[in-house]
């Protein structure tokens, strides 16, 4: 399953916002254009399937009113997420697209209206089935494989987020189960911060935490074999590095230390003295070692040596999950093959009224022309972004 596109209306600066997605995506754009907001929106999506939106807001120190756009007077946040997914008729050349349409009410912190349908097509035949409908406090869940209604009537429980957060997995048809798991396995690391990566933690429960504060427990839970793979990877790029130590304290807290070798001397450095860039790289490698559906990272180049960026970018382009990163660095873009750059580099900008918009950089004719003679990063360096805004808006 892969997200093909999202449409969002009324989430912070995302007003009438559309974003096409490839397997690897990189958002670029001026400060304040809305790149981090896009990552926050994906985290918001993932939380719909966990349910507890109040807790999500609390962890971010946000009020419910913060998620609505200040640019509109609309109450509800509407979005439409389209996926390319497996078709049960794939052997006959069918493609399937699943779409989730939602209206989220910020007072109730709930998707008050939801519709999920799947369309299968092979160029000649098109078949459409509704898998979920939520409306006016009622719901309907349909299993198209066995052609039967699984649930219908008034929703008998109180909930936040999507109704799918509360329905038992055993009651869901396979496509809805796949959707739920996709969002459970989506990780938006938009707040990774070195001071948080240094913290001791007890349990990670499969997540680095909003700002990476669970890194020590996360590494502990990964187990020895995955830790060795990460160690080998880091040793290739940091020659002095030789080991990660996770100690489990009697109280259950896990603490992280790093071992380095300089000549004959081996030193062990506790997390609170480990370099910022190394900790970020360690966190990204640790996250990449897990099975996941979608990984989102903000300002990927932060604190990382220029010569290590190529290594990181290659890893992310080749990673199994769908990936979305943001960057201000032309160097990151220069390491992308042209076909990855054409599909995946998205320019994020704001309209004069403050709404965030997205456009594939190389769908802009002048940019595409430059790409024939320059690398993607050189095109970016050679372009005045403020002028590009005017160019796109003039075109519109
Ligand atoms: N509720 C809201 N309604 C409308 N616009 C908002 C809302 N909340 C934030 N914004 C806008 O979004 C901007 C922040 O966007 P964001 O942090 O996503 O930018 P960015 O592209 O990540 O920038 P940078 O490159 O500096 O990290 C704010 O400056 C403000 O203009
Ligand atoms: Mg940002």
Describe this structure in words.
- The chain has 396 residues and is an alpha+beta fold.
- The protein has helices at residues 35-48, 53-60, 174-184, 194-197, 215-222, 224-237, 276-288, 306-318, 330-334, 338-344, 365-371, 376-381, 385-395, and strands at residues 2-9, 17-20, 24-28, 76-85, 95-105, 110-121, 126-135, 138-143, 148-154, 186-189, 241-248, 254-262, 265-270, 294-297, 322-326, 345-350, 356-360.
- It is globular, with a radius of gyration of 22 Å.
- It has 2 domains: 2-185 and 291-395, Rossmann fold (3-Layer(aba) Sandwich), CATH 3.40.50; 196-289, no CATH class.
- A hairpin with a 5-residue loop joins strand 11 and strand 12.
- It has an 8-stranded antiparallel beta sheet, covered by helices on one side. It has a 6-stranded mixed beta sheet with strand order 10-14-15-3-16-17.
- Helix 6 crosses helix 7.
- Helix content is 31%, strand content 30%.
- It is built from 13 helices and 17 strands.
- Residues 12-13, 29, 31-37, 66, 69-71, 354 line the site of adenosine-5'-triphosphate.
Q: What's a concise summary of this model?
A:
The protein is of the alpha+beta class and 396 residues long. The chain folds into two domains: 289 residues, Rossmann fold; 94 residues, no CATH class.
How are the secondary structure elements laid out?
Layout: E1 2-9, E2 17-20, E3 24-28, H1 35-48, H2 53-60, E4 76-85, E5 95-105, E6 110-121, E7 126-135, E8 138-143, E9 148-154, H3 174-184, E10 186-189, H4 194-197, H5 215-222, H6 224-237, E11 241-248, E12 254-262, E13 265-270, H7 276-288, E14 294-297, H8 306-318, E15 322-326, H9 330-334, H10 338-344, E16 345-350, E17 356-360, H11 365-371, H12 376-381, H13 385-395
Parallel strand pairs: 3-15, 3-16, 10-14, 14-15
Antiparallel strand pairs: 1-2, 1-4, 4-5, 5-6, 6-7, 7-8, 8-9, 11-12, 12-13, 16-17
């Amino acid at each position: 399953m892969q997200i093909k596109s999202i449409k969002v209306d009324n989430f912070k600066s995302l007003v009438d916002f559309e974003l096409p997605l490839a397997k690897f995506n990189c958002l670029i754009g001026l400060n304040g254009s809305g790149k981090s907001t896009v990552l926050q929106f994906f985290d918001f999506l993932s939380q719909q399937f966990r349910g507890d939106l109040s807790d999500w807001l609390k962890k971010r120190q946000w009020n419910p009113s913060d998620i609505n756009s200040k640019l509109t007077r609309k109450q509800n946040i509407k979005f439409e997420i389209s996926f390319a997914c497996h078709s049960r008729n794939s052997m006959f050349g069918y493609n399937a697209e699943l779409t989730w349409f939602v209206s989220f009410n910020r007072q109730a912190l709930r998707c008050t209206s939801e519709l999920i349908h799947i369309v299968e097509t092979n160029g000649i035949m098109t078949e459409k089935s509704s898998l979920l409908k939520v409306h006016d406090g009622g719901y309907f869940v349909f299993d198209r494989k066995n052609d039967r209604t699984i649930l219908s009537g008034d929703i008998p429980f109180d909930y936040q987020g999507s109704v799918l957060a509360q329905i038992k997995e055993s009651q869901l048809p396979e496509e809805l189960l796949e959707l739920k798991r996709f969002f459970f396995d989506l990780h938006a690391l938009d707040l990774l911060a070195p001071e948080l990566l240094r913290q001791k933690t007890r349990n990670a429960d499969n997540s680095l935490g909003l700002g990476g504060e669970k890194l020590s427990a996360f590494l502990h839970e990964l187990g020895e074999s995955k830790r060795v793979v990460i160690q080998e990877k880091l040793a290739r790029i940091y020659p002095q590095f030789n080991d990660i130590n996770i100690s489990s304290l009697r109280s259950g807290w896990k603490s992280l230390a790093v071992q380095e070798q300089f000549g004959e001397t081996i030193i062990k450095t506790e997390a609170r003295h480990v370099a910022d860039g190394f900790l970020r790289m360690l966190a990204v490698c640790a996250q990449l070692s897990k099975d996941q559906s979608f990984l989102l990272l903000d300002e990927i180049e932060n604190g990382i040596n220029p010569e290590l960026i190529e290594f990181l970018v290659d890893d992310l382009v080749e990673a199994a999950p769908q990936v979305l990163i943001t960057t201000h660095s032309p160097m990151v873009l220069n390491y992308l093959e042209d076909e990855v750059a054409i599909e995946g580099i998205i320019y994020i900008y704001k309209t004069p009224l403050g709404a965030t918009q997205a456009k594939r950089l190389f769908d802009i004719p002048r940019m595409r022309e430059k790409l024939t003679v320059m690398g993607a990063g050189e095109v970016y360096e050679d372009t005045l972004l403020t002028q590009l805004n005017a160019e796109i808006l003039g075109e519109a």
